[in-house]
Amino acid sequence: MSHFNLWLEKYNLRRAQIIDNWSCLAKDVSSLKNVINIDRMFKPVGISASQHPKMAFVDGGQGIRDLMGLAIYFIRSSAFIMGEKDEDGFGELFLRDLDMNVLPHDNLIKERVELLRDSMEFETALRCVLEHGPDTVVLDGSLFVKAFKKPIDCDEYKRYRQSFEALLRACKQMNTTLLGVSEDSKSRLFTKHLTKTQSIGFPPYMTDSTILRILSPYHAFRTVPFIPEKSMSIIKNRSMSREEFPTAYLQPNANSNPLRIDILGDKDSLVKNIDIIADLCKGSGTYGYPLPLYYSHMDAHIPTKQMDWTVNQIVNYVSRFDGTLADAIMRSPRRMCRPS
Q1: Which pLDDT belongs to residue 300?
Q2: Comparing C-alpha atoms, which of 26, 27, 31, 36 is closest to residue 195?
Q3: DSSP three-state, residue 171
Q4: Same domain, 229 and 314
Q5: Number of folded domains in the chain?
Q6: Which of 88, 125, 140, 248 is the most buried (most CB within 10 A)?
Q7: Would you state the torsion angle of the CA atoms of residues 35, 36, 40, 43, taken in this order, to the nearest 10 degrees?
Q8: Same structural domain for residues 308 and 173?
Q9: Residue 111, Cβ neighbours under 10 Å: how many?
Q10: Are residues 265 and 312 in the same domain?
Q11: Cβ contact 258:209 at 8 Å
Q12: Contact yes or no for 135/106 (Cβ under 8 A)
């Protein structure tokens, strides 16, 4: 049987199963609308003040290349400080940092590089707080997730914890608002909150984002703030942060997916800052993402060609001193040389 005939046979089988599951899902959604108090859960997006506070937006990028005996990583972070000019007095001010190095192979290589990148983002955000005094610092990603990241037995995790805690302390001392903005569409934090507080069961296919888009009576909305539930492993771990991070979802417009926003502070401050974030999302059109944070994302992004060039420079430099060792350790693995 040909590939196409196999595909057609399986497609006809699976689509019938999908429709059966879909009809059950539609019934579950209809019952949810009758149980949940939608007017209490959803609020229309407010109008922020015309003058925004001084804000800094921080994001990072990373690249990894696996070679025969080691991996080469390249990370960088970028902070866009809205309202400040650069040294020449023309463009907006960016604070930047980068690093590159080699790491021996292990099963946690990607996690270790991600920890290094996150640490650099925290350190760049800390520089913003101490050197430029913004009213608000916005990080890419959820503060709740960053605060309670699963521990890993490595030096990179120790640096991660130290830099994150230092940022929290500095924001408290300088009275700086710290926000996290996450595009995570697989989260079930709000679902777990409703399950616990209202004893509601949710279909397994539905994440926070899908539930919110179905239930909301508004094209642009925010949810009421809630405190995400911590797992028992987090509660028992004394080294974890004791902070609470009030959280809410924001859907900036009808075509965008909801953003999850959390804050180092209280629920009232979160509501006020959500309106500001919603206003900053207008410049991105239907994408529905704060435009200054997207500037930081693009500034920190590491293109594939730049990563390849960096790897070549390191390999060529090492080869000048010991060509045999470099050829053995820094050689591309077989899967990279496989004929296409």
Answers
A1: 96
A2: 36
A3: helix
A4: no
A5: 2
A6: 125
A7: -140
A8: no
A9: 16
A10: no
A11: yes
A12: no
